[in-house]
């Protein structure tokens, strides 16, 4: 079963849209915490929805077509007592003087719901996003994300993943190969396969995702995720470990 792939990200925020370039976030009282934590004075709220931005990444390079391709991610740790729904993220790009250069809302989440003590990511697919040709990089460029996180009402359906390996493909792409088991009594028509790549220090170096279709109930299906456009963003020799999650789409209303 062949699966197409791309990605990486950056971010900030909780409960409401919130811009930040240095890990600042606004809590529900309108104050900010430069340590990247949402510090609400209401102890009941603290015990429920709380989070911390533990890592961010942003890389870009110029390809053979003179396009500036970028990849970005933000790592969010759920430090509260409830599940967090990764509601929305927008990537704003600013120069060194804080002038807005470009905005991109084509951002994905992994996982859509993050349990207490776990981590989630906002990201864009590797090789799929570019900086507009009319944007000048003479005064630098930085990612300033806008993020909205809310308390989750439910969880997406997820499936066990096993026998995962990473190698180079015949067309110079990076391939992730593994098996997904549909342990439910219903056919899985469309399953997202999300991957975090780690270096030898256990730090995330890229995030991406793909999809698999038509996994019958009780069936264990092999999959291949191919990632193109990794020049300057992700190298096979830098990948020491991966985390792969397979789940159905979940949109909270």
What would your notes on this structure say?
With about 250 residues, the protein is mostly beta strands. It folds into two domains: about 1-150, Sandwich (Immunoglobulin-like); about 160-245, Immunoglobulins (Immunoglobulin-like). It has one helix at about 45, and strands at about 1-5, 50-60, 70-80, 85-95, 100-105, 110, 115, 120-125, 130, 140-150, 160, 160-170, 175-180, 190-200, 205-215, 220-225, 240-245. Strands 2, 3, 6, 8 and 9 form a five-stranded antiparallel sheet that branches. A hairpin with a 5-residue loop joins strand 4 (about 85-95) and strand 5. The radius of gyration is 18 Å and the shape is globular.
Which helices and strands appear, and what pairs or packs with what?
Blueprint lengths: L1 E4 L37 H4 L4 E12 L5 E11 L5 E11 L5 E5 L3 E3 L2 E2 L4 E5 L5 E3 L10 E10 L6 E2 L1 E8 L5 E8 L6 E11 L5 E12 L4 E8 L13 E7 L6
Parallel strand pairs: 1-16
Antiparallel strand pairs: 2-3, 3-8, 3-9, 4-5, 4-7, 4-10, 6-8, 11-17, 12-13, 13-16, 14-15, 14-17
